[in-house]
Amino acid sequence: MGMKAIGARVQRTEDPALLSGKGRYLDDIALPGMLHAAFLRSPLAHGVIRSIDATAALDAPGVHAVLTAQDLPEMLRNTRLPVMGSSPQQTQVMTPYALAPEEVCYVGEPVAVVVADSRYLAEDAAGLIAVDYDELPAVANCRDAAQAEAPRTHNGSSSNKATRFKATIGDAAAAFATAPHVFRQDMWQHRGCGHSIECRGAVAEHDPLRGGLTLWSSTQIPHIAKHVLCDLLAMDPESVRVIAPDVGGGFGPKAVFYPEELVVAAAAMKLGRPVKWVEDRREHFLTAVQERDQYWDVEIAVDGEGRILGVRGSMLHDGGAYLPWEFSLPYIAAVTMPGPYRLPAYDLDVTVAYTNLPPASAIRGSGRPQAVFAMERLLDRVARELGIDRAELRRRNFVQPDQMPYPTGLTYRDGRAVVYDSGDYPTTQSMALELANYADFGRRQAEARAQGRHIGIGIANYVEGCGVGPYEGVSIKVLDNGKINLRSGAAPTGQGHKTMLAQICAETLNVEIEDVIVTLGDTNAIAMGVGTFASRIAANAGPSALGAAQTVKAKILSLASRLLETPEEDLVLEKGRVEARHGNRQGLSLGELARRAKGSPGVSMHRGDTPGLEHTSYFTPAQATWCNGTHVVEVEVDIATGGVKILDYVVAHDCGTVINPLIVDGQIQGGVAHGIGNALLEWMAFDPNGQPLTTNFGEYLLPSSTVVPTVRIAHLETPSPVNPLGAKGAGEGGTIPAAAAIVSAIEHALTPFDARLNMSPLTPETIIKSLKQSPNYKAALMRACAG
Amino acid sequence: MGMKAIGARVQRTEDPALLSGKGRYLDDIALPGMLHAAFLRSPLAHGVIRSIDATAALDAPGVHAVLTAQDLPEMLRNTRLPVMGSSPQQTQVMTPYALAPEEVCYVGEPVAVVVADSRYLAEDAAGLIAVDYDELPAVANCRDAAQAEAPRTHNGSSSNKATRFKATIGDAAAAFATAPHVFRQDMWQHRGCGHSIECRGAVAEHDPLRGGLTLWSSTQIPHIAKHVLCDLLAMDPESVRVIAPDVGGGFGPKAVFYPEELVVAAAAMKLGRPVKWVEDRREHFLTAVQERDQYWDVEIAVDGEGRILGVRGSMLHDGGAYLPWEFSLPYIAAVTMPGPYRLPAYDLDVTVAYTNLPPASAIRGSGRPQAVFAMERLLDRVARELGIDRAELRRRNFVQPDQMPYPTGLTYRDGRAVVYDSGDYPTTQSMALELANYADFGRRQAEARAQGRHIGIGIANYVEGCGVGPYEGVSIKVLDNGKINLRSGAAPTGQGHKTMLAQICAETLNVEIEDVIVTLGDTNAIAMGVGTFASRIAANAGPSALGAAQTVKAKILSLASRLLETPEEDLVLEKGRVEARHGNRQGLSLGELARRAKGSPGVSMHRGDTPGLEHTSYFTPAQATWCNGTHVVEVEVDIATGGVKILDYVVAHDCGTVINPLIVDGQIQGGVAHGIGNALLEWMAFDPNGQPLTTNFGEYLLPSSTVVPTVRIAHLETPSPVNPLGAKGAGEGGTIPAAAAIVSAIEHALTPFDARLNMSPLTPETIIKSLKQSPNYKAALMRACAG
């Protein structure tokens, strides 16, 4: 009787502690003698520091140090932070310094740090630092930045363009030359933030006794953070430990190693005291990475039946002041454009421009929402122009299951071909349509209209290259008490990795999930790790957990077979014991076996044995896995206010093997909430000088529980052939097509007004502006108000 | 041009820090908020605790807690400490509790602990604890204890005999029945201590933030200590870390996990503050394990040419109050008896008796000095009786090199046959004799006698089963900065393990020894470890280092070959770089390769690659390796005072492959010093009630630099076939035969008085007593005084 854990709706083992206030987040860390840091940040979007006078700040009560760039170790003074995920081409891009030594390129860029007895004293003292700046012209929009005559976003650079590249399939010019229909469309998605509940933060302690520098950071990437610390502080990797304690959300912004983490570490080493810094929400608005600003100008060529012949055009990506993940986002957007559709010809000209805005890097979806938005809006346009039902049009264009594995014809920036590994896109869409009762929507809409209500339905499909390498490792060890320890570099930020990995281990070793003790987020727990981003943990750490557990199981059975003098095939591993299947059912507990496996001091081991019941496996996927899904959303638009109410939200989702439906459903639900924010609410606003205008939750709106419906979810499972678990990724699919689906639904609701909606977020103001262009609007509004 | 490090006389990398005061020993550890512990110990060798009144102690200034057994966690209250190296038979033996709950069985047994702001305050308060004891009769000698009518050493036990077993080869009765000559001899070696420069000590800190309990202990066995802590504190092994900082000598007593380590940990957990305890010298005399008390009554049967036909008799071993390593010592003694000699028949009847003395466990040599003493004294007796030169007699009896591997016919307690793996005993002895100019000694002796001086020469041979399993592991990793990190569970206590392991790694990877950063003595450094005892590190961790380095080298070359597009055979790994042997000599540094080997976040790895340039190897020897040696010592005895002066000390030594002659020579020199103490000085004295009489270095004499000569050393290397390095062990060979050789030399010096010396230590008093039995003594003394 085997324990069936993979695929089971297992309650998250993380939750009891977190829900009862026993979580240990970064700000819960209090070390003896700990000091507190506050950063002095640039008030200008662009300027040059002429001088810094810290005299008054140093005299302020409780202040231990004021550090500027000049006070940092030499290497930190002169070295920009490395890019996180550099391409094999090792392009040169702008990244920040730990503290700006001379030039500041966005509002909020760290200029100095005050270390004091409390955060209050540190902030007060920071206000006493006098910095003399030469203000320089700032560029607050990538379209402006891309102009040749634009002021330079970084002093002395020859252009604001960070790169320009092409993504191509086939011969787009030829396809467009002969196409029966071509439709062109501008599209834009605006910048927003990640806004994890917990902001960023770091505590550093330098203590040679425990082996050196320990940095606790609210990060998604402890192992990468460690590498950067070692490089920039010139430390032996063995004397640096990074711990991500409980982390209250990541969503991408915490997959960047930030100047503040480095400065806090350097300050702790310099002062010989632990130093803590916790980002406040205003700092998060100013300095955590942001994403989405892309301008697309694309056209689609189709035949008379709406079959896609080609897509071409250009895309302009806002890189912000720095590019911590280099060109990852625009590349991802470019290769995501084809989506689940056969695209015989494609020619996208991508430009990345620096601006004097906060650095741009991945936020849940990471370039994909923009590409999906572009493609899905184009398809809606085609459907409207040719009078084809939107679902039917998509159906006609799907890559078919029997075409898998399907090379799209694109290559990624690492030079590898983009190949969809598995999936059944037509079935996924059918499931979503059925669950949403799409066939009946015409009736519902007619009924609503008769009541003066404007409802609409939207569809969007996506594929997502997720589960990217290079690897993630898992160590599994049977402990002396019979419990199983599992360690991995897969640092969680709330996804339930502990539960998911425990399930794989528990099923393989046929133990209770509670008996698997999972240690994550600590660079001391496993030699190597990458981190949590790109929906990569299930497809990287998952197979590693499987591989490690299988090897440990083989060791268990081999040892038990010898000790019990019973062939392996006659043994049962069950409930933490190995027993002989027949006879007297003599057996040994896993704890006893673990002790025996360690051998006895001074006694030789059985020839060929290796000690211990443990194994570490690093699974290295040969390529990304490609999950997919269909979102169908039903909305009602209040044409008087422009308010949008989501009536129903359906997701059909294929992330390969579903290890825990509860977790996947949670990811989808949360992802959709994120997507609703993107579609309707979240707008990070700046004035023309690059001054942020929305720096609190009164000005920047997040979707609340009254806005976000319970998402209804259907799963299809087409296991990935890329890894033995068949797992893909589930972290971002809730977000990626949401804006496309919601805007589609709004447009559909506003069909009587022939609204054309090609941006997000779509605020009430924008909707009203669009409605006002319709000759039908005034009369409809009168009817609605009367009714 | 390969780096030749193995076998080189490399300066110890440990020494610059240690010699310049930068060592970090246990007592150097100071943690914020740390409290200090002092133990209240039993003043009786045997008694029952009626009541403990801690009121006054609790009221004393600075006292935070007074803990007795009743105040410990339940598991600690009721569980005796485990045996360290239990035999597969899992015999039940007496071990101590953390704190004596009821019965005390030796003077010094911990009864309570006071935790206070300082050690002074803690000791003062400990003096205020009132314990009401019922005194019970104590047994202070194992010969008394073995008597049926003796008082019981432990209340309620049916006998003081812990075990009785036999070691046999062939048919001893038959051999003795027909032997031309049989000689019988009583022998005795007395109890002494280990006396590392640094006493024991422990600091415990319980901090969930850093993952739980950290115990710093001046121990030889951090991994075993961790297992015991987990078991007895019911802790998840992942939340316990044991660190052995710099340790000032071990010699065996620190290969035991002691009650104090456990109590300090429990106190730190209970109080939520770090707690430190450092053993003072008096405590070390009372409570650190002691060794050597064995009574041998054996006879040897030889033919007319002095060839050994058999040995038989009995041995009584003093176990002290507890047996932390079970019967390890008497078993080792029993199988060591045959030594390098062919022994066709053997029958030793071994009894282990408890006494009310400090627990007995291994001190450098661990049972072997006693067995070698017994055999070598018997051979000297045969030589004298049959008029054969002592060296010649031994030569006639050696196992020959062409008999290797040589099963002695004995089995060890794990049921495995005792098999000598390699060695050339005749050559080893010849080398020693030559170096000592043995052939000329007769002339020197005659010359001295003519001057009224009494000089003698002694010879002793030994073999030592060392390098025992079960394993020791080594992890090797190339760091991003190109340096190599090596980690192992092989905790050093001054042997130079870091240098030795770095040599193996450096030679294999062809880097400088300084570029190998070695981390030892930390259970977080490597998943599994055993510890340092039984001269086992070179033969266990050594081959692991070799294996791990070889695998890492293969990874380096494979990766470099692909990146440099050059076949592996055309690559040179040299000076931390891999370069193409031909052409432009393009290359990559180890640091660059390490970075490339980690892969790039989000980028798939080359198919088949595993990330990182690292490997962990656990070498598991199939059996012990058997090193051997010959000691030849020349002494002068002052017949007026009984004083002995060592004129020359020669060791010929075969420990297989010599990895670092400087280190091996140091081990031999130190070991001989230890042996000189055993032979002449160290006498741990007790009164008949078990009260220790020698509890400081005024009463208990250690060999000082004026006593210990510079040992002259010759090496023979017969590599062991048990491991690929060919290494055996070198830590104890300096000690094992020393007492036998020195007593032989003294007896030889005193030939004119026909002295019969069959015990150690041989104090001046004993020598004089022996001399006084000689009719020649008075006259000789007169002549000497006159001269």
From TrEMBL, chains A, B:
Domain of life: Bacteria
InterPro entries: Ald_Oxase/Xan_DH_a/b (IPR000674), Ald_Oxase/Xan_DH_a/b_sf (IPR036856), Ald_Oxase/xanthine_DH-like (IPR016208), AldOxase/xan_DH_MoCoBD1 (IPR008274), AldOxase/xan_DH_MoCoBD2 (IPR046867), AldOxase/xan_DH_Mopterin-bd_sf (IPR037165)
GO MF entries: iron ion binding; oxidoreductase activity
Record's keyword annotation contains DNA-binding: no
Aldehyde oxidase/xanthine dehydrogenase a/b hammerhead domain location: 20-137
Record keywords, A-Z: Molybdenum, Oxidoreductase
SUPFAM superfamilies: CO dehydrogenase molybdoprotein N-domain-like (SSF54665), Molybdenum cofactor-binding domain (SSF56003)
Protein name: Dehydrogenase/oxidase
Organism: Hypericibacter adhaerens
